[in-house]
Amino acid sequence: MTTRNDGQVGRTGLTARQRELLHLLAQGRDDAQIAATLSSSEKTVRHQTSARYAKLGVAPFGGSAHQPNGSQR
Length: 73
Known about the structure:
With 73 residues, the protein is an all-alpha fold. The protein has three helices and no strands.
């Protein structure tokens, strides 16, 4: 699979936008910072983050406030 900016998925099975979200999380950015960077709402960021964790089959890491089921700590 190739990586493209038009919503196509890459080898990871994630779109460029989804990978960008995970990259920002890995940098330690909070929901407000990610929302501002992606021109999105914090609620959307929380939803997308939970969905990415579930898609990857991993639990949230470190100090993240996200839970795979969408609830917050």
